[in-house]
Amino acid sequence: FFFSCVEVARASRAAAKSCRERARRTYPAPLCLMQHFQKPENALRRADELYAVGQKEPALVALHDVLSSKRHRTWQPMMEEVMKRFLTICVEMRRGKASKDGLIQYRIICQQMNVNSLEAVLRHFMQLAHEGAQAALELAEKTISDKVANLLDFDDLEAEETPESLMLATIGGSADSKKRTDRLLVTPALKFLWEAYRTVLDILRNNSKLEELYRDTAAKAFEFCKTYKRAVEFRRLCEILRNHIHSQTKVDPKWKDREPPTPEALQVHLETRFGQLATAVEMELWQEAYRTVEDVHALTLLMKKPPKPSSMASYHAQLAQVFWVAGNGLFHAYSLTRSYATAKSLKAAPSEAELTALASRAVLAALSVPPSSPVLDLNLLEYDLEHEKTKRMAQMLSFPSTASRATLLAEVVASGLLEAAAPEVRELHALVERKQVPLDLAAAAAPVLAKLAASDACGQYDLPLRRLVALRMLQQMERLYLTISIDKAADAITVLQWPQIEALLVWAVKKDLVSLRIDYKLGQLNQQRNKADAAASSEVRESLAGFASALDAVNQHLRSADLEKHAAETRARLQEAIGKSLEEEHQKVLARRLVIERRKEEQERLAMEEDKEKSRLKAQRQRAEEEEEKAKREKKKAKKKGKKDKQREKKKALAGEPPAAKAAGGSEEEEEDNSEEEQPAASSSSASAPAASGAGGSSAGGSRSGGSGSAGGASSSAAAQGGRAVGAGSPSGGEAGA
Asked: What φ, ψ does residue 485 adopt, rounded to 5°?
């Protein structure tokens, strides 16, 4: 008991020492003394008195002592007032660590009793920090007569001041007044506001009862980064949110009883990621937007039910913007098609004009995707890398793994997007996607392109569509001409200037879409001879095949009556021939059935004979094994008997008994041997034959032993019987009988 008391006292001293150390780090040294208040009202009154005379540090210490005291661990309404006054002083003094420590203590107090009080305190804290930042910005703007946007050109809020920067700021003069204002007014205010948002997110990261406040805080932090152009802080904020969801979903053996996030919590995190993606798109942080897309994919895998359609519609619209900036036209078009399908399935569906504009954008985006050659690139390593990258992205976004321009256009037509688009969009699709493109395609498509370029929703696709029209015309020129002058080609392709046509031609040759070469010396476009011959032969084959099909169709149309008459006569002849050969076919079927039955019987007979032969061989094998076993037993028996005879002869020679006694004793021993040999023979399967042979052996042995003991066989057997009879009556019966 004494040692336990010593340990308790030692632990108490260690706890008090750690508390003093924490207070010493948080507050100045003269103010670290603990103050004990019986009631929170007393501490609040004392703090107000100290605050009124300008002593903010002692007031802050007094309020912190109440929050960290063990006697005030039970929540009461006055504790909320104490906490709000504590946060107000922290905001005025810009004490971020002290405010975080106080909020942690207050969370311990009201976590089980009143969570709504914690929510009210956190919202009050963020409001105070935001108002303080706004006041500092207004004061800085009045001080140097400059706009707020020009005061936000510093890189990192968490960067520390170096001695060199402080020295330069001291001797800089009036030219550095703006930087001094930033350092004295703007930077501390924004830094404290940023720390306030981080503190609230850390307090709420594992609190399932305040998920809405967590989402609102993240939204305010996103708005802070967007308003004040804080790209570095936005990246850190995304990493903080990513770590929070990772800590909630990872499997840790130390926390076996921890429940996984609920579907509502996952939905809140997903909506937060949607806001994060929107902020990244507005701030043009495309790398962070791509990582946010990966986070959304990971969250959708954890969710058991699909997300809300309204959120997914805006998500696909943001994806389309990200892929457009990244230069991935294929996934940009797929995102727009998914956005249209999701928006159409909403309960509060958009108006017809909005749906038409969205469908027109989707069709134009699909047409703007650069065509690709069906021939694979010879650089297989580069092709596989690009293919795997596209495949992974398609899998992450639930797009088809075999995504291509052809499949996308087929899906656009099949899903009704083309019919829902504007008339000029349908007209352009019909012009550029036909098999035979006329050489006046540019003149026909120019009015449609001009009308689409004037539209706000479709103006971004003007240049890709003009390049598509020019590419179709170059491909048609390649089919028709071996050489064509540069001036004629430039005059025909009016949708682009010649430098743009030249760049397009170089790109198309690199992608193996055309085989033209520019000859500036002769001022013409030429084809390679081997490719020209191959293209010409292919065109000739296709033309001849189409011409033959057309002639066949005309012939059938002109001779339709004769063809019908000939077909009727042919049918009549076939029916008559079938009627005549019906009986013959029936007899052939019956004969074939008899043959089949005979073959079946023959197979059954052969199977039965085979089974009998197997049974016979098995029985023969069994008899051979039995005879072999019997021979082994006989051999063993003879060997044992010879051994016993030798032992008996030795005993007789050593004992020196008379002949009669020897004969009698020999007969008894023989009978004992015979009885011992008959027992294993009777237990075998063939009991009769071994028993008979054993009896014969015994009589033979008796006669032999009798012959050796007396002159005749009769006297020997009589002597043996007499010996057995007397031996049964007395121990010396053997000798008397003898």
From this structure: -70, 150
